[in-house]
Amino acid sequence: MRHPPALRHLLPASLMLLPAVVLLGAFTHLPAVQTVISALYTTPKANRPARFIGLDHYRYLLDDPVFLKAAWNNLIFAAATVPATILISLGMAMLVSSKIRGRGLARLAFFTPTVLPMIAVGNIWLFFYTPGYGLLDQIAGLFGFGATNWLGSQETALGAIIVVAIWKEAGFFMIFYLAALTQIPPQLIEAATLEGAGPWARFRRVIWPLVAPTTLFVLVNAIINACRMVDHVIVMTRGGPDNATTLLLLYVYETGFRFWDTGYAAAISVVLLVILALAGIGQFILLDRKVHYR
Length: 294
Description:
Pfam families: BPD_transp_1
Keywords: Cell membrane, Membrane, Transmembrane, Transmembrane helix, Transport
CATH topology: MetI-like fold
Domain ABC transmembrane type-1: 71-283
Family: Belongs to the binding-protein-dependent transport system permease family.
Number of helices: 13
CATH architecture: Orthogonal Bundle
Largest sheet: none
CATH superfamily: MetI-like
InterPro entries: ABC_transporter_permease (IPR051393), MetI-like (IPR000515), MetI-like_sf (IPR035906)
Distance between the termini: 45 Å
């Protein structure tokens, strides 16, 4: 009995997909399900097994001042880094895609922070922020300003971390915008110029709508990056001073691995996953209708 052509191709295709499906399930979906389940139990100890407590962890979150502070910090962090990263990366892409001297050197300079290890980036900026003899204070001293403890003050610590994150990520997203700009037909720019459109009008009417799919992609990834930031914070401030730079993922790490409260850390992780899921779904529902794909 001969099988239909579709069935004959189904088995080889399934076998080729099987390794990816197994890895995705083992390292993504299964841990996510285990995290949701762990959030409903207490943390098991050597002489005390895990006990089902339902939603008690989530009720405690509402009264946890450190969690509320971390959530607020993360909101500020995302609100500052996401739009700034998008604007700066698009501006850099437009600059290096134009006909300027040293274009290759500019691309290298913009992209270099992306390839640096995160620990190295943190240590570089630690030198910049060092009070008294750091680079920023040395420059400020030329204009008569005194030393500033950028990472030791609650007023400036989170802003200092935000600057580092933007500096690190803008070059990465520049690559996607650069690819999108190269796909814009030059005839459209020439036609807009002949019609008398200035630089701002060409950007608003031609360039911005055509890079909208890339902007949506960058927006989603920038929000994800803002919620998974932990390396720079550990290296530079460890969440201080007085939790001024504690973000949600850092709080998950400290709760689960420093205080060994895995059940409560799982509950925070679930909240973080829900926030990311709602943000992603909301972006696609609200913005995907305004994005035109070619």
